[in-house]
Amino acid sequence: MYGDDATVRRILTGLGDTWAVVGLSNNRSRAAYGVAEVLRRFGKRVVPVHPKAEPVDGEQGYASLGDIPFDVDVVDVFVNGDLAGAVADEAVAKGAKAVWFQLGVVDEAAYGRTREAGLEMVMDRCPAIEIPRLG
């Protein structure tokens, strides 16, 4: 398992409230949209990162993490596993505190690089599941 309950709890409650959600668009049928709603209800600021850079629920979107003109605490990744490692590297470069790969997204090499850079990281888990599970 990549990210025990203590790590998950730390990311959800102790690392900050600005989450960049990579893959978030206005498509309400996508998992990223539903998870973003849960994060907002949990008090997080959700910043959409998507090639279209469109606003989502009033929050300006950005085409990449590097385009965000402010600090980001957690990068939540909703992209294909083949692309996720590059996003983790961008999160390190951005100065994020943690990276979260969603269900089904596993990249052991990216996990190692991200942890070596000092960031917290979980893979193959979903904050919308973990928030109620951990209380």
Describe the secondary-structure layout:
Elements: H1 5-13, E1 18-22, H2 31-41, E2 45-49, E3 74-77, H3 81-94, E4 98-101, H4 108-116, E5 120-122, H5 127-134
Parallel strand pairs: 1-2, 1-3, 3-4, 4-5
Helix pairs in contact: 1-5, 3-4
Question: What Rg, in angstroms, do the CA atoms define?
Answer: 13 Å
Number of helices: 5
Provide the residue-averaged pLDDT.
94
Beta-strand content bin: 15-25%
Task: Please describe what this structure looks like.
The protein has 135 residues and is an alpha/beta fold. It is 38% helix and 16% strand. The protein contains five helices and five strands. The chain has helices at 5-13, 31-41, 81-94, 108-116, 127-134; strands at residues 18-22, 45-49, 74-77, 98-101, 120-122. Strands 2-1-3-4-5 form a five-stranded parallel beta sheet, sandwiched between helices. α3 runs parallel beside α4. The protein is globular.
Which labels suit this protein?
135 residues, alpha/beta, 5 helices, 5 strands
Short description:
By secondary structure, the protein is α/β, with parallel strands linked by helices.
